[in-house]
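User: Quick sanity check before I run a bigger batch. Here is a single chain. Can you write out its predicted 3D structure?
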Amino acid sequence: MTSIDDRVVARATINPVEPALPGPCANLERQVVEVSAGAYAREIEAAINAVARQNGTRPVVHIPLGTYSIEG
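Assistant: Done. Predicted structure follows.
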């Protein structure tokens, strides 16, 4: 345990302020290609190849949380 400048103060002297959360990310209007949950390697590869042909537009391939069987 590390202790640096620890002080004990009365509860009334503390004015806790809730931190401000950051705003939403900027919408960059990128094309999003959705891969279905549980997709096989062929479907994932097809989505990646489709966006790779759009060089310069920076599309996004969204692979949802899950388990995927990729053989090769």
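The CA atoms of residues 49 and 56 lie 14 Å apart.

User: Great, the batch can go ahead then.
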